[in-house]
């Protein structure tokens, strides 16, 4: 299995787990944070060739972006 296909498999797994993690009980703010972390983790894994640091860093950045974009606009 190549690194790219392994990264896509890991990404699909992360997205599946995030989707099945019971988002129905989450607020919109929490759901957006979780979705951002999932997408960021996949992007980090793909961009760094599947490195652990890239995946975790991408998830962290994605979570922050998802959290910030879901705030109420005043």
TrEMBL record:
It comes from the Bacteria. Coiled coil: none annotated. InterPro entries: Gly_zipper_2TM_dom. Pfam families: Rick_17kDa_Anti. The keyword Hydrolase does not apply. Residues 1-21 form the signal peptide. Residues 32-69 form the Glycine zipper 2TM domain. Keywords: Signal. This is Glycine zipper 2TM domain-containing protein. It comes from Rubrivivax gelatinosus (Rhodocyclus gelatinosus).
């Amino acid at each position: 299995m190549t690194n790219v296909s392994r990264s896509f498999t890991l990404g699909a797994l992360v997205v599946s787990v995030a989707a099945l993690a019971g988002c129905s009980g989450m607020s919109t703010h929490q759901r957006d944070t979780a979705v951002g972390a999932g997408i960021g983790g996949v992007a980090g894994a793909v961009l760094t060739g599947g490195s652990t640091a890239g995946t975790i860093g991408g998830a962290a950045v994605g979570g922050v972006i998802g959290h910030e974009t879901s705030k109420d606009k005043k």
